Amino acid sequence: MKKQYDELVKKLIEKYPERKKEFITGLSEEVELLQIEKLNKIKAQQNNQKVFKSLDKIRNITRSNSNLLHSLLEAVKNYATLGEICNVLREEFDEFNEQLAL
Q1: 54: burial class by Cβ within 10 Å (0-12, 13-18, 19+)?
Q2: Dist. CA 39–CA 84, nearest whole Å
Q3: 51 lies in the same domain as 77
Q4: How many whole angstroms separate alpha carbon 55 and alpha carbon 50?
Q5: How far is C-alpha 41 from the geometric centre of its chain's CA atoms?
Q6: In 10 A of CB 68, how many CB atoms?
Q7: How far is it, in rounded angstroms, from Cα 76 to Cα 73?
Q8: Are residues 37 and 50 in the same domain?
Q9: Half-sphere exposure of 81 (CA within 13 A, CB side)
Q10: Is the pTM of this model over 0.85?
Q11: C-alpha dist (Å) from residue 84 to 33, 44, 60, 71, 94
Q12: pLDDT tens-digit profile of 12-65?
């Protein structure tokens, strides 16, 4: 399925090179700008102290092998962004890299 999708994206890029970014990301420039604007509004409303505290709580819980759900919800309620939360999780757990078996 992914191979078919990749081939379709390549064909679309060949036919419409000016829309390459849209085909790769799935976002038009208009939607991308709207999302950036929304993110900036959220960041402006953040209480940085609460965000940092909730991100530290996530970090500490990952080290104790406890349930993350409540701390993740707390971080979201404090307007921590998905990127901020994922960065903490990546720092603690690293990223999964699928090993190809030939």
Answers
A1: buried
A2: 12
A3: yes
A4: 9
A5: 17
A6: 15
A7: 5
A8: no
A9: 15
A10: no
A11: 20, 15, 15, 13, 14
A12: 778 878 777 776 777 677 877 888 898 888 888 889 999 999 999 999 999 998
Residues 2 and 29 in one domain: yes
Using a 10 angstrom Cβ sphere, with 0-12 exposed, 13-18 middle and 19 or more buried, the burial of residue 30 is exposed
- Its domain, for residue 75, covers 46-94
Nearest residue to 56 (alpha-carbon basis) of 64, 94, 46: 64
Does 101 map to a domain?
Answer: no
- Measure the CA–CA gap between 33 and 46, rounded to whole angstroms: 20
CB atoms within 10 A of CB 39: 13
How would you label 6-28 residue by residue, b for 16+ Cβ within 10 Å and e otherwise?
Answer: eeeeeeebeeeeeeeebbeeeee
Contact 84, 55 (CB under 8 A): yes
